[in-house]
Amino acid sequence: MNMSYRMNFALRMLLPLFLFSSYFFFSQSRLTLVIAVLATIQVIIFGVEIQRKGDWSKINLQHDQRTRENARNAGNIVYWLTIGVLVIGSLLIQKSVILMSYQNLIGYTILLTIVLKWIIGDFLNNQEAVGD
Q1: Do 43 and 107 fall into the same domain?
Q2: What are the residues facing 59 on neighbouring strands?
Q3: Distance between CA 62 and CA 64 in Å, rounded?
Q4: In a shared domain, residues 10 and 39
Q5: Are 51 and 71 within one domain?
Q6: What is the dihedral of CA 21, 24, 26, 29, to 10 degrees?
Q7: Which of 63, 16, 6 is nearest to 39 (CA)?
Q8: What is the pLDDT of residues 55-90, one digit of tens each?
Q9: Domain shared by 22 and 77, yes or no
Q10: SS3 of 59, please?
Q11: Structural domain harbouring 53
Q12: Quick check: pTM over 0.85?
């Protein structure tokens, strides 16, 4: 959905806020804290780029054909990576190689895939922008 840069920035702020509140009130997991810090850094970089270009009130055209194709490719990569991590992780837990519960494995994998999808999608979109 195409929206203003200001609204897009506000929506991107929700994930770090959720992760920090999850860390401080529920989990106390270092991985949650690391992912929250990385998501915060990404939001800050996005805000600095908007400020530098002066695009706060402009519309962010983020869903043209190339970005949709890149998002689909990033989703496919993360999908197969998720399946691989869950299978290998469950085998390692079953063999008692790593001391983790299945719930933690699933939770950490979900957080990791969210971050990886953003990184891969941004990388592919930046490759398209450099190629133009």
Answers
A1: no
A2: 4
A3: 6
A4: yes
A5: no
A6: 110
A7: 16
A8: 888 876 665 666 777 777 888 888 898 899 999 999
A9: no
A10: strand
A11: 1-62
A12: no
pLDDT of residue 83: 92
Q: Are residues 13 and 72 in the same domain?
A: no
User: In this structure, are residues 66 and 125 in contact, taking their beta carbons and an 8 Å threshold?
Assistant: yes
Q: Give residue for tokens 């891969």.
A: 120
Residue carrying structure tokens 């983020």: 62
7 and 44 together in one domain? yes
Q: Residue with structure tokens 């840069």?
A: 5
Over the chain (132 residues), what is each successive 10-residue block's mean pLDDT? Answer: 77 89 85 89 91 81 67 84 90 87 87 85 70 54
Looking at 31, 62, 93, the residue that finishes a domain is 62
Based on the fold, state whether residues 132 and 87 are members of the same structural domain.
yes
Q: d(Cα 64, Cα 132) in Å, to the nearest integer? A: 14
Crossing angle (nearest 10°) for helices 30-53 and 14-22: 160
User: Which of 17, 11, 8, 12 is closest to 37 using CA atoms?
Assistant: 17
